[in-house]
Amino acid sequence: MKNIYVLRLGHRPERDKRVTTHVALVARAFGARGVFIEGEDNRLTENIKKVLEEWGGGSYFKVEMISDPKKIVNLWKRKGGKVVHLTMYGVNLPDMIDRIEHEDNLLIIVGAQKVEGWYYHHADYNIAVSNQPHSEIASLAIILDRIYKGEELNIMFEDNKISVIPMERGKKVIRRDG
């Protein structure tokens, strides 16, 4: 798997807890190595860590609350990584996927509110999944799916306590003690 992290800008605990949780869950399930979340929200990180304990990925996926997202962007770039900013104002993903799918060290930025112009200028790529308003969760899922060409759908976390056995009908869940 590639070294892909997600930077969630402007998390507002009272308003964004569900959306930011879903950003983290999609990042984990679709092959990112972790998520940096701007702000303070201990309850959010605890909820995500509970998912990691039950469904696996705790040794693989990292969650970190941060106060200075610009510092993360600058550090990422200094270490040779590329920064992708998901924005409906960017170049459409089909026109950019050939450039980014070969990158092994990506920081993908998703905003929660109006994103400061600084990020547009410091991103290596400003990419739109669509030039229409829609969910940052959907954008993140689609770009990760395009980068991994669907292979991320086969991710299995060995440290899971709960796993789902795919079935055409019904539900089958395996629970392990531990």
The CATH topology assignment is Alpha/beta knot
Number of domains: 1
Basic shape: globular
How many helix segments? 6
What is the string of SSEs from the N terminus onward?
A: EHEHEHEHEHEHEE
Give the structural class: alpha/beta
What is the radius of gyration computed over CA atoms, rounded to a whole number of angstroms?
16 Å
CATH class: Alpha Beta
CATH architecture: 3-Layer(aba) Sandwich
Strand order of the largest sheet: 3-2-1-5-4-6
How much beta, percentage-wise? 15-25%
Mean pLDDT: 94
Task: Describe the 3D structure.
There is one protein chain. 38% of the residues lie in helices and 24% in strands. It has 178 residues and is an alpha/beta fold. The strands form 2 sheets. The protein has a 6-stranded parallel beta sheet with strand order 3-2-1-5-4-6, sandwiched between helices. The chain has a two-stranded antiparallel sheet with strand order 7-8. The longest helix is centred in the N-terminal third of the chain and has 17 residues, at 13-29. It is globular. 30% of the residues are buried. The mean pLDDT is 94. InterPro entries: Alpha/beta_knot_MTases, tRNA_m1G_MTases_N, tRNA_mtfrase_aTrm56.
Give the arrangement of secondary structure elements.
Elements: E1 3-8, H1 13-29, E2 34-38, H2 42-55, E3 62-66, H3 69-78, E4 82-92, H4 93-100, E5 105-110, H5 117-122, E6 125-128, H6 136-148, E7 162-164, E8 173-175
Parallel strand pairs: 1-2, 1-5, 2-3, 4-5, 4-6
Antiparallel strand pairs: 7-8
Helix pairs in contact: 1-2, 1-6
